[in-house]
Specification:
The protein has two helices and nine strands, in the order βββαββββββα. By secondary structure, the protein is mainly beta. The protein has two domains: 86 residues, Roll (Chitinase A, domain 3); 47 residues, Thrombin, subunit H (Beta Barrel), CATH 2.40.10. Strands 1, 2, 3, 4 and 9 form a five-stranded antiparallel β-sheet that branches. A four-stranded antiparallel β-sheet has the order 5-8-7-6, with no helix packed on it. The longest helix has 7 residues. The model has no long low-confidence stretch (mean pLDDT 91). Bound molecules: zinc ion. The site of zinc ion has 5 residues, from loops.
């Protein structure tokens, strides 16, 4: 047995269920395959990662994360109008469609949702779909191990089938 506790640069196997305020379960780890992540590298939302720190294998906890420590408050101004002509032909643009675009300033991939389509303009909602939500996680630490040098250099876990370059 290991006496490791969750700390930076460990690979954590996490079983979790994610509920919203109204009790609706919106996400959960696969029962056969816990989520593996590299602790301390910003792979989880900050409010959850902080609460997991120091837990041991087998420990369980319920964590409620406020929007500011999760996916942010819902921003009424986080909408952007893009000319319809900027989209490739053949994309069926309808409200709710999820898009991934490269931010020209930072190079980061950003997620957006189509809010409205007019004759010549597409209105995009740049809020994360879980913005403004308090998130309750039931978590259990399933495994802990030291990360390999390669994983530390990449800042993510290399698990079987779980990672692509
Ligand atoms: Zn890698």
């Amino acid at each position: 047995m290991t006496n490791l506790t969750v700390s930076n640069n460990l690979v954590v196997g996490l079983e979790y269920t994610l509920r919203l305020d109204d009790g609706e379960v919106i996400d959960a780890s696969d029962s056969n395959a816990p989520l593996e992540y590299l602790h301390g590298h910003g792979q989880l939302i900050p409010g959850l990662e902080r609460e997991l720190h120091g837990m041991s294998v087998g420990d369980k906890k319920t964590v409620t994360v406020a929007p500011e420590d999760g996916y942010g408050e819902y921003d009424e101004d986080a909408f952007e109008a893009v000319p319809l002509s900027a989209f490739p032909d053949g994309i069926e643009l309808s409200p709710g469609l999820e898009l991934h675009m490269r931010d020209s300033a930072t190079g980061h991939i950003i997620q957006a949702f189509v809010a409205e389509v007019t004759d010549d303009t597409v209105i995009l909602d740049l809020n994360h779909p879980l913005a403004g939500e308090a998130l309750t996680f039931d978590v259990k630490i399933a495994s802990l191990r030291k990360a390999t040098q390669e994983e530390l250099e990449h800042g993510h876990v290399h698990s079987e089938g779980g990672h692509h370059h």
